[in-house]
Design a protein that fits this description.
Protein name: UDP-N-acetylglucosamine 2-epimerase (non-hydrolyzing)
Shape: globular
Keywords: Isomerase
Domain UDP-N-acetylglucosamine 2-epimerase: 28-387
CATH class of the largest domain: Alpha Beta
Oligomer: single chain
Family: Belongs to the UDP-N-acetylglucosamine 2-epimerase family.
Helix content: 40-55%
CATH architecture of the largest domain: 3-Layer(aba) Sandwich
Number of helices: 18
Distance between the termini: 41 Å
Number of strands: 15
Number of domains: 2
CATH superfamily of the largest domain: Glycogen Phosphorylase B
Structural class: alpha/beta
Pfam families: Epimerase_2
């Protein structure tokens, strides 16, 4: 017997990294015979997100259009909550007062998928919770141990962890983090990371870099290449300046090395990077790259220097050493395995570690000896199988880690088990609304628009 909810699944995303990591999952849901994804974008990185989803064949149901210059984190959060609430009410109407078990009547989504650690993901999770839609957290359980590094991502992860009914964790260590915080192990599922799925999908497609400043990469197959990315909020200002200074020093000590730096669109980040590095012959500054050409760039790299989270998983999948320019990382498995090295933002330390990798083949090889702890490229397949099991009580999907228990997930989402002769079913209690249903019937909701600039504070 299917769950007493509609088999539509909300998928909410706002940033380019979210789009890259969620498109394999959206594709799987679109191909599913009984589940249908309803993709909602927030409009933060609009052009970049639209490009990723369009090129990968993922359909978008709505754009909340919250992106605008100078948006603060609180403004972003409140805009996403209000916009997503309006979209859900406009598409589905008020929440059913009671779940009856008849799919055609109980028209609300079976769940809301959010990814990772952005403020928009946290806002979407809270919105879904307020409407009694179960939250499924993809890339769950990553922790650094301090809520200020990275800020605000670390606390966003913990907030979503409290709201979510189901946790798709990339690794066993992520599950352990959740269990230590009081999450029942029966609501967790080790899946690997969908970012590896996306990387493998793009790696199978030979694409041009498609920008003139990178034409030299089409013909130069021998020069060592270091890819550098920097954008984390806690590194803004002096931290990013120190990373840029390290690159400048390395151009002096290793003139044979070429550097490619996709510059983050945030004006604060871009100004700092350009002030230190613009005009250096060995440094190519380019705009943020799409998933396919960037995957090709990672594969071409000798070394990656980054404060990004996803790249800490993607580059090791290609056997490329990674220096992480952060004081802490939620990808502790990579540090333990030796695929990552934490170097912080101290210029001298970055230069010393990069020099060791460039000059010592044995040190470079040590980074790729261990298998990538973040997955085998089948994370999206496992997550969809888990959703299918939750919605339709299909066979339990298998995992390399602890399995999850359907009843525990549903009970956390507010369902109550009712035993019957043909097996257990699950129902939810009446949903208490702020207004009487009669008061909502005549409300006219204005269509959402996404007009205007799309720049937004970086996350």
């Amino acid at each position: 017997m299917p769950l007493p909810v509609s088999p539509e699944i909300l998928v909410v995303l706002g940033t380019r990294p979210e789009a890259i990591k969620l498109f394999p999952l959206i594709q799987r849901l679109q191909e599913h015979p009984r589940l249908r994804p309803v993709v909602v974008t927030t409009g933060q990185h609009k052009e970049l997100v639209d490009y990723v989803l369009e090129t990968t064949g993922c359909e978008v149901a709505a754009d909340l259009g919250v992106g605008r210059p100078g948006l603060t984190l609180n403004q972003l959060t409140s805009s996403v909550v209000a916009g997503l609430d309006e979209f859900i009410l406009r598409r589905y109407g008020p929440p059913p007062a009671h779940i009856t078990g008849r799919v055609k009547v109980d028209h609300y989504p079976a769940g809301c998928i959010v990814h990772g650690d952005t403020s928009s993901a946290a806002a979407a999770a809270i919105t879904a919770f307020h409407l009694r839609i179960p939250v499924l957290h993809v890339e769950a359980g990553l922790r650094t141990g301090t809520t200020l590094e990275p800020f605000p991502e670390e606390l966003n992860r913990q907030l979503i962890g409290r709201v979510a009914s189901f946790h798709a964790a990339p690794t066993r260590a992520n599950v352990q983090n959740l269990v230590r915080e009081g999450v029942e192990i029966g609501r967790t599922f080790v899946t690997g990371n969908t970012g590896i799925d996306a990387l493998q999908w793009t790696a199978k497609r030979s694409v041009p870099y498609d920008r003139p400043e990178l034409d030299w990469l089409e013909t130069d197959t021998t020069s060592p290449v270091i890819t550098v990315t920097a954008h984390r909020r806690e590194n803004w200002g002096e931290g990013i300046a120190n990373i840029a200074r390290a690159v400048r020093r390395l151009t002096e000590t290793h003139p044979e090395v070429r550097f490619v730096i996709p510059v983050h669109p945030n004006p604060t980040v871009a100004a700092t990077v350009r002030e230190v590095l613009e005009g250096l012959p060995a440094v190519t500054l380019t705009s943020p790259m799409e998933a396919k050409p960037f995957g090709r760039l990672l594969a071409r790299s000798t070394l990656v220097i980054t404060d990004s989270g996803g790249i800490q998983e993607e580059a090791p999948a290609l056997g490329v050493p990674v220096l992480v320019t952060r004081a802490t990382t939620e990808r502790t498995e990579g540090v333990e395995a030796g695929t990552l090295e934490l170097v912080g933002t101290d210029t001298e330390r970055i230069v010393a570690s990069a020099t060791r990798v460039l000059d010592d083949p044995e040190a470079r090889a040590a980074f790729s000896r261990q298998p990538n702890p973040y997955g085998d490229g089948h994370a999206a397949e496992r997550i969809v199988a888990a959703v299918e099991h939750l919605v339709f009580n299909s066979p339990v999907p298998r995992s390399s880690g602890p399995g999850f228990v359907r009843s525990e997930v549903l009970e956390w989402a507010g369902f109550h088990r009712t035993d019957a002769l043909d097996g257990p079913t699950f129902e939810r209690d009446d949903v208490t609304l702020e207004h009487d249903r009669a008061e909502l019937e005549d409300v006219v909701l204005q269509p959402l628009t996404s007009d205007g600039p799309t720049d937004v504070v970086a996350e």
